[in-house]
Design a protein that fits this description.
Distance between the termini of chain A: 72 Å
Number of strands of chain A: 3
Largest sheet of chain A: 3 strands, mixed
Largest interface: A-B, 38 and 38 residues
Strand content of chain A: under 5%
Strand order of the largest sheet of chain A: 1-3-2
Structural class of chain A: mainly alpha
Mean pLDDT of chain A: 96
Low-confidence stretches of chain A: none
Oligomer: homodimer
Chain lengths: ~500, ~500
């Protein structure tokens, strides 16, 4: 029998080597989005596939399973070590549930549905895509069956993105969204509207870029351990806690597209930079869930980056950079404008209130698709009906409606709710931070963001996957996910902006 | 018994997967030099090490050896397939000659000698480095013994970079360098000197960059399958023939540093872009030797990029970009200036004539070090003596003398001669191209470089490793490496520039 330290060292070696390969893939993926010349795609594809196969093989082979089972019985290794092993064993057993044949089938189907989705978008016609979507839904049901689940097959899919989440937890939350947000939206609509016309001007790209760098530095994003580049869709990627990169896009005619996307990705990046380097490649060195990841990006983007306090500090600086565009716009006007609420068609462009209707709609629809209560053939109508109901608008075509998101074509069912969870956790964490950090408002108002980052680091980042999102939320706020924090945040914010009765 | 096609497919799969991993490493290496934030180094180091170990393991394990031996006996696969297998078997058997213990030792020693070299450079004192260099030399002798060699241990080391090269081939060539270049240099020195003062002006970085892109496009470098970036030391790297990248550096006060480095790296890149994609990862899809690689870069940099014909086309364009700097400099003055010959201390900054003394000195010294005829303790004096003899100058300190190159600290003995071989092959190939391509001079004079690239593609690039450098040279020019082509080229060029008697 090998002694435990040797066994744990072996375990750590395997996991960290697999991480090396996965992080190498991430570098190739980053390059593909940011700098790769167009003809590079074909061979890059096979290079990524080879790396994926190798790390998958390392983490699913039987010897690794034996090692994990053996280590799992040992109680004389440290607590953190036991925790890592426990999580790795869960990952391993989950992975083993999908036979090679299934992985092959879903890989092929993902490629087929994605092509069909691209073609359908091009021709602005959902019908082209619906049969491939139906096949994908069948496979996702099969996947739920292979994983096993209690109560609802959708739970097994949710678990991929938000461990521990379930319909039983989410339904009550989204029921509150359904009950409480429409009245708020109604009151906002009935109030005098605010203007964001000042965005309809030319904002030179370089100045936008420079300002975003200044803000990121103030947030505490470490440029010695990261960088910002341009890509078509903004994203954050990590090659270790010491190299976490973000991307953004710049549009001369749409300033909002850059700055808040930089802050949003910056929030994700601060989480990754805050993960413990000593746990590189191990579960305690990885982010715990998509919802918690999104809580970090949204907290920075919205609770901080769209707050009056934040702009109290930054607005004079912004005006200096864009004096001709913003010279005549007061701080109050600017603050109101960047928080304008208005129902719109595209999820990724929605404001903080209407955003959650976009997610609610997708959550209800994907649940119904997985349950078999809704046929893919009827999805477009169901989508359009719900947009009418919740947002009061009907998509003029499929591209601006049912075809706007890539997720389902990639088989990502259970992903959408994590976007709203992110906002709700963000509001709940931020409310707690305001209680625990002395004069946080004043600090933000002075551009001092260090203590907030330190608090998030100690409360969230440093734990990696030690706690699930619900456990983490309980530890931080004394209760599980609670929509009322978000409602208080929204009530308070929009009362000021819209002078709500 | 498996049928041959199945066996060959298996062989190809293994080799191409190893290539996927090696090319992934190349992406990580490129990123490290070009964009990686400083704190990324530590984890990047382990990621690169893991990838290197994995590809090495794939290519050296016994099953792969058995497969190669089995395939090698088959004669009913295609000729190209047989050729690939033959070369792979040679690679395999060569790799197997180095035991794991030796690889470990030399990896550690490389790290130690490199640190010592860095420290010695910092303190400008060779003594700090000499003992680690001595240990490295002992290991290189051990490596030569493990590989096996005939006649001279240095041959085994040369073979790493230039298969088939040997002291017996190189000595006569460098003897001619010794005999024929000093009289040429003497005649040049005794003639009226030319001026390159026009470089001592401010050349804005962006304009330099833009001009280099224009030249690279004219050379036929495919920007859909590559890109240029900035790095401290210019290099070329390839992730497939469809993604070949170059880097350069820009110095406002030294224009020559960018343009010819871009052309030089562009020449390397054209070779890589010209390799057959269908042979991806296989020997017939890889460059044949460092000497031939360098022949491509030097042919473009010197035979083309420093020719009167080339500038006949490009100079008016260059003058347009830099009218205040070059408006008063005639084409002839410019042409002479960029070909100025003057002994200097640093190899990488040397002109086309004196360059080969730098290489000759290193070739003689490293041969003597490997033979044991020169002790590392005496190396600095030997170096300085030879600089006095061949270039008429004595390094004022170690940094500008014996410590200027990194190669030996990395254990790269046998590498230096390939730089000169590159120039000599370049002259020999270019002489042949002038014979075979109708009015090549006139084409270059009109900025038409397509036929030259096509010729190089058909004569060199497309073959991959099918021929060794000597075989290739024989095929193209009807004879092996022949220094007289370079002498004719130099005589002709400098007669015009220096009005030689």
């Amino acid at each position: 029998m090998q002694d435990n330290n040797t066994l744990y060292t072996k375990y750590k070696e395997i996991l960290q080597k697999a991480a090396d390969i996965q992080y190498a893939s991430a570098v190739l993926g980053w390059d593909q989005e940011v700098y790769m010349p167009p003809k590079g795609f074909e061979f890059r594809g096979r290079q990524l596939a080879t790396l994926a196969t190798m790390s998958h093989e390392m983490l699913t082979n039987d010897q690794f399973g034996d090692l994990l089972h053996e280590l799992h019985t040992r109680t004389d290794i440290g607590e953190a070590e036991q925790h890592n092993v426990r999580l790795s064993l869960e990952d391993y057993e989950k992975n083993k549930k999908l036979p090679a044949k299934f992985i092959e089938d879903i890989t092929i189907q993902t490629s087929n549905s994605y092509s069909a989705w691209l073609k359908a978008r091009e021709q602005n016609n959902y019908s082209i895509y619906k049969d491939e979507l139906a096949k994908m839904i069948a496979l996702k049901n099969e996947q739920a069956r292979l994983y096993g689940y209690s109560a609802h097959p959708y739970n097994a899919l949710l678990d991929e993105y938000e461990k521990g989440a379930s319909v039983a937890i989410l339904d009550p939350v989204f029921n509150k969204v359904k009950e409480q947000l429409p009245p708020l939206l109604k009151r906002i609509k009935e109030s005098p509207q605010v203007s964001d016309n000042f965005f309809n001007k030319n904002y030179p790209k370089q100045d936008q870029w420079d300002f975003s760098i200044e803000v990121l530095k103030k947030m505490g994003y470490d440029f010695e351990a990261g960088r910002q580049d341009i890509s078509e869709h903004p994203f954050t990627t990590s090659f270790s806690p010491e190299d976490v990169r973000i991307t953004t896009r710049v549009d001369e005619h749409n300033y909002s597209s850059l700055l808040w996307s930089s802050i949003h990705e910056g929030g994700h990046a601060l989480y990754e930079q805050g993960l413990p380097s000593a746990q590189y490649g191990l579960p305690l060195g990885a982010a715990t869930s998509l919802g918690i990841h999104e809580s970090q990006s949204r907290l920075w983007e919205n609770c901080v980056g769209r707050s009056y306090n934040f702009w109290n500090y930054f607005y004079p600086r912004l005006q200096q950079s864009f004096s001709s565009q913003l010279g005549g716009v007061s701080l109050k006007e600017f603050y109101k404008g960047v928080n304008k609420v208005e129902p719109s068609l595209i999820r990724t462009e929605a404001d903080e209130v209407t955003y959650h209707f976009h997610v609610l709609i997708r959550f209800e629809l994907e649940k119904a698709l997985i349950e078999g209560k809704l046929a893919p053939a009827d999805l477009r109508d169901a989508w359009n009906d719900m947009y009418k109901t919740y947002l009061g608008i009907t998509p003029p075509d499929d591209k601006q409606g049912i075809l706007q998101d890539v997720h389902w074509s990639h088989g990502m069912f259970g992903y959408f709710p994590t976007y709203s969870l992110g906002s709700f956790y963000a509001a709940q964490f931020f409310e707690q931070a305001e209680k625990e950090i002395n004069k946080l408002d004043e600090q933000i108002s002075n551009g001092e963001l260090e203590q907030l980052l330190k608090w998030l680091g100690e409360k969230v980042h440093v734990f990696g996957r030690r706690y699930t999102s619900e456990e983490l939320c309980n530890r931080i706020t004394g209760r599980g996910l609670d929509f009322s924090s978000f409602m208080r945040y929204a009530e308070n914010k929009y009362s000021g902006i819209y002078d709500l009765k």
